Amino acid sequence: MSDLLLKYDSLAANPLKSREDMISALERLLDPLPPYYSRGGARLEVGKSGASYPAAIAGMEGFSRVLWGLVPLMAGGGSSHLWDIVLDGIRHGTDPAHEEYWGEVADYDQRLVEMAVFGFALALIPERIWEPLSPVERDNLYNWLNQINAHPCYDCNWLFFNVLVNVGFRRAGLDDDAEQLENNLKRIDAFYLEDGWYSDGIEGHCDYYVPFAFHYYGLLYSRIMSEEDPERSRKFQKRAQALAADFVAWFAPDGSALPYGRSLTYRFSQSAFWGAMAYAGVDSPLPAGVLKGLVLRHLRWWFRKPIFDNGGILTIGYAYPNLAMAENYNSPGSPYWALKAFLPLALPEDDPFWAAEELPLPEMPALIVQKPAHLVLARDEASGHVVAFNSGHRGTNEHTHTSAKYEKFAYSTVFGFSVPRAEWGLSQGAFDSMLALSERGDNLYRVRRRNMATSIQDNVLHAVWKPWADVEVRTWIVAGLPWHIRIHRIETARPLDAAEGGFALGVEGELLKETGPDLAIAANGYGISGVRGLLGYEAAELVWPNANTNVLRPRTVIPALRASLQPGVRWLAAAVAGDPAPADSLAALPAERLNVTIGKRDIAIVTCRGDEMFIAMD
């Protein structure tokens, strides 16, 4: 085994208890990078897969993203063997006469994204990034970055990139665009919802861009600009305090976080918010030891996953290398945005974050309603399983696999979620935690992508969605663990085939399985997944999705229910289970005998124990 691979084994073995452990982890992540820098140092080219922008820009992206780890390390008094390469890269990348010049940017350019970390660096470590440059080199860096004030960014979290560059200019004593800075900060306020949640643009989604973008940058601003702009700094901190109470529920006791939404290839940036809370000195509702535990357990969880290639380079994917789930804007260097999780290295050893004893997650209710995010979080204390039940969204977008990443009925820390490999049939579609509908015999399935209406009342989520103009589906989800209930009223003008998918279970090792007229179960060392038809379904089966469709496991099986629908109104109801406890028999899944009755104005659910629940249809 090579020395390099031994180093990456050491990442998994790193106890990640102390600041020195975290520095060591960052060093191990950076060690393999030097051979991948271009001759002039201005590009980091770690792979050959493509993105929506040219390879030269992708190389610039890779260069910049490494700085999200290096800048905090330097700010905390550390050093890196990469820094001389970085300085040469800045000299050459911003020199219009050099062959590796990063170029003149366009409107909505990817390079506008990558400028943000330079603003951060100018604010935190001007002595390391600005003072070593000659007067001409300083002018080049300033002029290249200042292009961001002449080109618009997308009307979403991108506005913060302009904010950070101008804040960096200001802290370094350079001319900034004060008017544009203020306008962008005011526009960002328009995205704020409530309870700490932003939407990523007007009618945008609430996903990881809220904690690792909006709040991360807002907290950086609050620390850097606390004296100059105290009122706004306090506002950013108060909003972060509010989000912390909700966002902590997205994490499981083992350190894993909820796979949900886009940009999951940024992996351990999921914990970046907690480090930013500590860095900004927020009066957190969570003790410093809890923040520390959230960051360090999360890194431990990730470093036990096969997320590196044989050279130690971070790959595109989630829990394993996987281009199938990637976005169009994921270049080979994109995953290094994960280094935002290393912001606590900017804090000294005696900071409360590092001085505190690591603490576990706080106690939380079994069900947590997060209406701004359209979610109900269910937690099973015994197993540590976390599932987010999703009412759905009114808007949609053109990002890759939007329906799979934002419109499934449930998202699980244990079972993950799947994306379609192609459009033909259930195996290519990999429709876990979804109702998939196809015109009779067509085998091309449609799922929920946007909703006409959504609501959450306690643990009942409701949505109205239309896969075709003449097909309306009204869906109710009764959240719970290990079982939850799904009910659909389908009014269709065309004959349809319907398939209701349960959780996707990894299939490595021995698999226990059972299918019947109304029941499909699969179980193994990863847990147990099952579906039971309660009303309207005609058959049950196990669907074997194409490989690499699930974000957690390369190979999976999905228990599913099937029905054929004639034009008119049809009701479907199912109980769906997912339990991470390793199963050596199918009896490990508790029975869930339910009776569902459709009335004129409500839906009645009666358990085998005689417990009753009524759901109003209006």
Which descriptors would you attach to this protein?
Glycosyltransferase; elongated; six-stranded antiparallel β-sheet; Beta-galactosidase, Chain A, domain 5; 618 residues; 29% helix; 17 helices; 21 strands
Question: Can you put this structure into words, describing what you see?
Answer:
The protein has 618 residues and is α+β, with helices and mostly antiparallel strands. The protein has two domains: 3-355, Glycosyltransferase (Alpha/alpha barrel); 367-587, Beta-galactosidase, Chain A, domain 5. The protein has helices spanning 3-13, 19-30, 55-75, 83-93, 110-114, 116-124, 126-129, 135-145, 159-171, 178-189, 209-224, 230-247, 272-279, 288-303, 352-355, 402-406, 425-429, and strands spanning 367-370, 375-380, 385-390, 410-412, 435-439, 445-446, 453-457, 460-468, 471-478, 483-492, 496-501, 505-506, 512-515, 519-524, 527-535, 539-543, 556-565, 568-579, 594-598, 602-607, 612-616. The strands form four sheets. An eight-stranded antiparallel β-sheet has the order 7-8-9-10-18-15-14-13, with no helix packed on it. Strand 8 (460-468) and strand 9 form a beta hairpin. Helix 6 runs parallel beside helix 9 and helix 11 (209-224) packs parallel to helix 13 (272-279). It is elongated. The model is unreliable at 1-6 (pLDDT under 50).
CATH class of the largest domain: Mainly Alpha
Spatial order of the strands in the main sheet? 7-8-9-10-18-15-14-13
| Range of strand content | 15-25%
Give the integer mean of the pLDDT values. Answer: 95
CATH architecture of the largest domain: Alpha/alpha barrel
Question: What form results from the Cα inertia axes?
Answer: elongated
Count every helix, treating DSSP H or I runs of 4 or more residues as helices: 17
Number of domains: 2
- Here the CATH topology of the largest domain equals Glycosyltransferase
Low-confidence stretches: 1-6
